[in-house]
UniProtKB/TrEMBL annotation:
Part of a TFIID-containing RNA polymerase II pre-initiation complex that is composed of TBP and at least GTF2A1, GTF2A2, GTF2E1, GTF2E2, GTF2F1, GTF2H2, GTF2H3, GTF2H4, GTF2H5, GTF2B, TCEA1, ERCC2, ERCC3, TAF1, TAF2, TAF3, TAF4, TAF5, TAF6, TAF7, TAF8, TAF9, TAF10, TAF11, TAF12 and TAF13. Component of the 7-subunit TFIIH core complex composed of XPB/ERCC3, XPD/ERCC2, GTF2H1, GTF2H2, GTF2H3, GTF2H4 and GTF2H5, which is active in NER. The keyword DNA repair applies. Keywords: DNA damage, DNA repair, Metal-binding, Nucleus, Transcription, Transcription regulation, Zinc, Zinc-finger. Component of the general transcription and DNA repair factor IIH (TFIIH) core complex, which is involved in general and transcription-coupled nucleotide excision repair (NER) of damaged DNA and, when complexed to CAK, in RNA transcription by RNA polymerase II. In NER, TFIIH acts by opening DNA around the lesion to allow the excision of the damaged oligonucleotide and its replacement by a new DNA fragment. In transcription, TFIIH has an essential role in transcription initiation. Belongs to the TFB4 family. The keyword Metal-binding applies. Pfam families: Tfb4. One of its GO terms (molecular function) is zinc ion binding. The gene is AUGUSTUS-3.0.2_34891. This is General transcription factor IIH subunit 3. InterPro entries: TFIIH_Tfb4/GTF2H3 (IPR004600), vWFA_dom_sf (IPR036465). Gene3D superfamilies: von Willebrand factor, type A domain (3.40.50.410). It is found in: Nucleus.
Length: 300
């Protein structure tokens, strides 16, 4: 058989050298997270763990790619690679220059971002927006990659904030976009259980873990999230927990078990409304259910 006839899915052995793994880490740096309000030094610990984890990803293969984002209260920014030109670093204590550059760039850009934070207003982290930015970044890398190169992308969200149903629509949009693009979303919850992000992991085939102890964050990151998705099937990882698949109603953004769904646009409402607020379809007010009279059996 001619090599050209092999479909792209059954990748032959020789392309394995041109496989690249792109990891985008989203770190929640919002100062209004409960764990940071209790002890602001936790952020340093988290960033150190994420840097060590990111460098381990780069260490696995020379072709591996990395991007790190900080998700803040009002904005989400790429802190590696930063907006400025790459740092010029010399080797320190025999450490690989790329690792030094990753550490310095992340710390510098994060410090800049934290310094711009002035208001003490408590706002939620814009995680859905950060994931959307990560998806755009991955799409750009995918478009500009050299021909013949296979790019496996995944996103890791490290956050201590709770997920709010007010971003429900944005979350669902990014989850299904990621699923369509074949991008895995992993979530590492530091403080609270996150039911919406857990749905995202389930939809995209990623892993969800709420770390039992924050002190051991690096160990959890290395054991659970460092292996690439195809290898994970062969490992004994924390068993999947039951996913809470409740949806948020479009009227109050609250998670509901049972509600009304618009038959035209599939919007969800907790109470019946005669006009769908999304697509403006008019519905009849439901009357009492008509009960069919039982047919009497005729004895023969
Ligand atoms: Zn409602
Ligand atoms: Zn509708």
């Amino acid at each position: 058989m001619n090599n050209l006839e092999i479909p792209a899915d059954s990748a032959p052995e020789f392309t394995s050298t041109s496989e690249t793994s792109l990891l985008v880490v989203i770190v929640d740096s919002n100062p209004s997270q409960k764990m940071l309000r209790d002890n602001p030094h936790v952020l340093t610990h988290c960033i150190d763990s994420v840097i060590a984890f990111a460098n381990s990803h780069l260490m696995q293969k020379a072709q591996n790619k990395l991007a790190v984002m900080a998700c803040h209260s009002k904005t989400s920014e790429f802190i590696y690679p930063g907006p400025n030109k790459p740092l010029d670093v010399r080797q320190i204590d025999g450490q690989y220059e790329v690792f030094t550059a990753v550490e310095k760039t992340i710390k510098q850009n994060l410090a800049k971002l934290l310094a711009t934070e002035k208001s003490t207003l408590v706002t939620e982290s814009l995680l859905a927006g950060a994931i959307a930015m990560a998806l755009c970044y991955i799409a750009r890398i995918q478009r500009t990659k050299p021909p013949g190169c296979v790019l496996n992308s995944r996103i890791l969200v490290v956050t201590g904030s709770g997920d709010s149903a007010s971003q429900y629509m944005n979350y669902m949009n990014v989850f299904f976009t990621a699923q369509k693009q074949g991008i895995v979303i992993d979530v590492c919850a530091l403080d609270q259980h996150l039911s919406l992000l857990q749905q995202g992991c389930d939809i995209t085939g990623g892993l969800y873990l709420k770390v039992p102890q924050l002190q051991g964050l690096l160990q959890y990151l290395l054991w659970v999230f460092l292996p690439e998705p195809p290898i994970r099937q062969k490992l004994v990882l924390p068993p999947p927990v039951k996913v809470d698949y409740r949806a948020a109603c479009f009227c109050h953004r609250e998670l509901i078990d049972i509600g009304y769904v618009c038959s035209v646009c599939l919007s969800i409402f907790c109470k019946f409304s005669p006009i769908c607020t999304t697509c403006h379809t008019v519905f009849k007010i439901p009357g009492p259910l008509a009960v069919k009279p039982k047919k009497r059996k005729i004895k023969l």
